[in-house]
Amino acid sequence: MPPVVAVFALLALFACEEPPPPVTAPEAHSWKDEAELVVKGLQDVQALWEAGQRPAARTLADRVYSERFEPRIEPALRSMEGEQATAEVEYAFALMVVALDSKDRTRVEDRIDTLERRVRAIAEAAERAFPPPGTPAAPPAPPKEVRALVPDVPPAWEASEPTPEPSAP
After folding, report:
1. What is the pLDDT of residues 41-55, one digit of tens each?
2. Are 105 and 52 a contacting pair, CB within 8 Å?
């Protein structure tokens, strides 16, 4: 089958898919735990690559994507940010796999670090958007510029940053 025909067949297949089921919180783990499982897998990929086991690193990278990220975190990303953002993360995984074939340590580390940060950010957003059953969804965190101007923004929205104290007049 010519490549162009294969691409159109693949697009037709995806176009005919039923809509995905609604996203729900993980049953056995929190969103953060799910993200950390992906991050741990990425760190293992890097360790294998550094040990010179490139085929094993590539195989593990494929498994981290297909067995951890794609079925567990990607549906939340697709629901929250849409197809474009999902395609960008998929592309980042592909770039990482390509980098594993190189000897460029900086490129491999950059690709893996970028994915780790992105996966953690997706999990944080999913924690707010898709809480466990019985827990109300939290509103999205306001931008940092707003939090700097409005001192009464609840600090629980971003625990890693202190809430600015009101300045005395």
Report:
1. 999 999 999 999 999
2. no
Report residue 161 as tokens.
Answer: 């940053």
Query: Domain 25-149: which CATH class?
Result: mainly alpha
Task: Please tell me the predicted confidence (pLDDT) of residue 5.
Answer: 43
Torsion of CA 78, 83, 84, 87, to 10 degrees: 80
Residues 117 and 36 sit within 8 Å (Cβ to Cβ): no
Range list of H helices, the chain: 3-15, 31-50, 54-63, 74-99, 105-129, 144-149
Distance, C-alpha 100 to centroid of its chain? 19
Structure tokens at 45: 């990929």
Rounded to whole angstroms, the Cα distance separating 62 from 16 reads 26
pTM of the model: 0.69
CB 41 within 8 A of CB 68: yes
pLDDT tier for residue 26 given thresholds of 50, 70 and 90:
confident
Q: What is the DSSP string of 125-138?
A: HHHHHSPPTTSPPP
Domain-wise residue ranges, the chain: 25-149
Q: Could you give the CA distance from residue 56 to residue 104 in angstroms, rounded to a whole number?
A: 17
